[in-house]
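Quick start: what a row looks like.
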Amino acid sequence: MKPCNVQARKRLAKMLAALLCALFLSGCSRLLPDPVRAAESTLVPGVDTLLPDAEPAEASTSLQEVTLYFRYEDQPYLAPEIRSLTTAPDEPFELALLQELAKGPSASSVQLTPALPEGCQILSVASQGRTLFVTLSSDILSGWEDEPDAWAQDPYWQVEAPLRRQLCMQSIVATITENCNYDGVQMLVEQTDVLSDSLRLRQSWFLDGSAEDVLTAPLVREDSYLLTPSNTLRAALDAWRTQEFSLLYGYLAAADRPSYEDFTAYLKKAPRLVNFGFTGGSVSPDGLTALYTLHLYTQDQSVSQEWNGRVMRLVREGDLWKLPWAQFTGWMEG
């Protein structure tokens, strides 16, 4: 065999070996698992399921029960309304709380009215120790639309105008102290035109005769304005003493009270309350009743009578304290 033929056959054998190797490797690659194709494969037989895309975590919100204070009808008291409040993680709780207060009572709280004047907004809050600084919009300075300019010459407005301002500020203070750890609230007012003036609310806004340059100090909670069980009982008995039957009727529990006509007919025949006192006020563990011991002095025509040791049990109806009709009449019939 010629040397040239041997060399040619060797080169041909090498080329065939390389070709077979390439074909073999190409076939093997089709047998190896593909991670991308595996991720897109069906997780449940017969269902085309794709792995979901990663989603950014949503900002968590906080939901909690809060107590807000509004005016009770046209009386000199504030009463609570309990509702749920949702706050965002980047929102100060105190600001969300007071902005909820500024919305007014819910439609279901028929005996409550807003304590803040219409249009007044809560702009910001800041804390310093146990004092909360609250900035109100300048609308607070305009007061209430129905107040007459000559309020000081009207006996009704001489009482009502200053009272509204006390209840307005106490609604803020009571709401804050009820839900947060503060002892006082410093009221500030938005300033839009006088940059050098103090932001603090002036004491003269309360219509108490203070000079214009006197600024308010931090306001503290005054429970005398709140319809606690004791204040509810006192207001109801005082309405009976002064024969304000419509007012007294509003303090009765709706569950068992008679019609207004039957109610007034009963009281006109009953002895008239001349004076009263009471002790106690213990609230039941479930928070639904409060117990008092009455000391009453009545007069029926020319006969005076003293009633000692009569028990009165108030009940919680919704967010308010009320007198059951059976409790109200039971002590006279016993």
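That is the whole record. The two ends are 142 Å apart (CA to CA). The longest strand covers residues 303-317.
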